[in-house]
Amino acid sequence: MTASIGRAALLAASGINILLLPVAAHADDKIFDELRFGASASIQDGHSREDGVFPEVTVFFDPFGQDSATNWKQTLARPRLNLGTSIGTSGEATQIFGGLAWTVNFNEKIFAEAGFGGVWHNGDLDNSVDGPDLGCRFLFHEYVGAGYRFDAHWNVVAQVAHSSHANLCDGPNNGMTRAGIQVGYKF
Description:
Blueprint: H1 2-25, E1 34-42, E2 54-61, H2 72-77, E3 80-86, E4 95-105, E5 110-121, E6 138-149, E7 154-164, E8 176-186
Antiparallel strand pairs: 1-2, 1-8, 2-3, 3-4, 4-5, 5-6, 6-7, 7-8
């Protein structure tokens, strides 16, 4: 089990390095908007609780120009795209997720964020002895968060993320709900 966690961490680190290579080669061209890394833990109780800590990495892209939005209507019409992973430890589910994210700035420092998309996971589908029964491999993924910007580049975000199939596929739907902290660097 420890070897699989090590392989997952190595794969995630390799992916980040591959993504960073074009940024180093073309410093003026912005490949992605923000990189976040952190960890989360299950906030469910009982049978559906997941053990361990889940290291996370998320990359944000801004193809619609959310940074240049001047009012809430433009912000709503210009979501950022995200792609990330939450790596399972202690034998729990690893997730690979992607979707849309909207950010609302309350001032220069404080912001809120919400996202919606999809997730693939390798968790138990049904009859799990410990942990959630998830019913199918592809689930909906949504999150909300609150953040603080230290400067133009660095921020910290506390978030709660939930993944489930909304009873759209056969099988149980315990879902996964995790809360955590991420540190972000905006390019």
